[in-house]
Amino acid sequence: MPPVLNSETEEGEHLMTPQIKESFTVSGGEDEGGQGGTQTVEIREKWSRKIEFILACVGYAVGLGNVWRFPYLCYKSGGGAFLIPYFIMLFLCGIPLFYMELAVGQYTREGPIKALAKMCPIFKGAGAATVVVAYLLCTYYNVIIAWAVYYLINTFRSELPWASCNNSWNTANCFSDYSSNTSRPDNNSVSPAEEYYNFNVLDRSKGIDEPGELRWQLALILLFTWILVYFSIWKGVRSSGKVVYFTATFPYIVLVILLVRGVTLPGAWKGIEYFITPRWELLYEPEVWVNAASQNFNSIGIAFGSLIAMASYNKFSNNIFRDVMSVSLLNAATSLLAGFVIFSILGYIATLQNKEVDDVVTQGPGLVFVTYPAAFNTMSVPHLWAALFFFMLLCLGLDSQFAMVEVLVTTLWDHFKGFFRSWKINREILVLLVCVVSFFLGFPHITQGGIYVFTLLDSYSSGISLMYVAFFEVIGITWIYGALRLSRNVQEMTGSKPFLFFIICWLVISPALIFAIWMFGWIKYKPVTYGKDYIYPDWAQGLGWCFALLSIMCIPIGAIQAVWTAKGDTLLQKFLQSLKSTLPEGGYGENGPPDCQNNPPDWQPQRALVTNGEMKTKV
Question: CA distances (Å), 129 to each of 126, 190, 192, 264, 305, in order?
Answer without folding.
Answer: 5, 42, 42, 47, 9
